[in-house]
Design goal:
Belongs to the FlgD family. The protein is of the alpha+beta class. The chain contains five helices and six strands; from the N terminus they run ααααβββββαβ. Strands 1, 2, 3, 4, 5 and 6 form a six-stranded antiparallel sheet that branches. The longest helix is centred in the middle third of the chain and has 40 residues.
């Protein structure tokens, strides 16, 4: 007697997609349901034209929404990449950034710090991070001011310890400005 080994049959079966395990139907699933419905309808009492047109309109709408979702996902990805390129122009620039310093558990104060940007990266979660010359990573949302690094001339050259404010709090020049 000829038998077919179960192992051969199982390897040929398509694997279930994640959509089915999540209970989400896609446009292909909707089309399969519509085709099955048309194939199994009662010939003596076929589907009403209005019902068929309504289902086709729903299918068309579903396909358009799926295409729009794909386009939006591509746009968001492109926007994240573009932000990275734009912020890469900060490399080598002097920035002023703000940080919150906790005084006690009920109060905090804002400090403004000057550093030079050495790198920029885009995290997996889409957050843009900036590496400073002191090895600290900050969020781009902490930026207050961007300027060129000022190179002292020979006649105004100061000692490095007098010239450096890297990583040290400074007063925000914009804070006391009159309008």
């Amino acid at each position: 007697m000829n038998t077919i080994h179960d192992g051969f049959y199982l390897n040929n079966q398509p694997k279930q997609q994640n959509q089915q395990s999540q209970g989400i139907l896609g446009k292909d699933d909707f089309l399969k349901i519509l085709i099955t419905q048309l194939q199994n309808q009662d010939p003596a009492n076929p589907m009403d034209d209005r019902e068929f047109i309504a289902q086709m309109a729903q299918f068309s709408s579903l396909e358009q929404m799926t295409n729009m979702n794909t386009a939006i996902q591509k746009f968001v990805s492109l926007q994240s990449s573009q932000n990275l390129v734009q912020h890469s122009e900060l490399i080598g620039k002097q920035i002023q950034w703000k940080r919150e310093v906790e005084i006690d558990k009920y109060r905090s104060r804002t400090e403004y710090v000057n550093n030079v940007v050495t790198a920029v990266k885009l995290e997996k979660d889409g957050q843009l991070r900036i590496l400073l010359d002191d090895g600290r990573w900050i969020s781009h949302e902490q930026l207050v001011q961007v300027s060129q690094v000022v190179q002292p001339t020979n006649e105004t050259q100061k000692k490095p310890e007098e010239d450096s404010t890297n990583g040290e709090p400074v007063e925000n020049p914009n804070e006391n400005a009159e309008v």
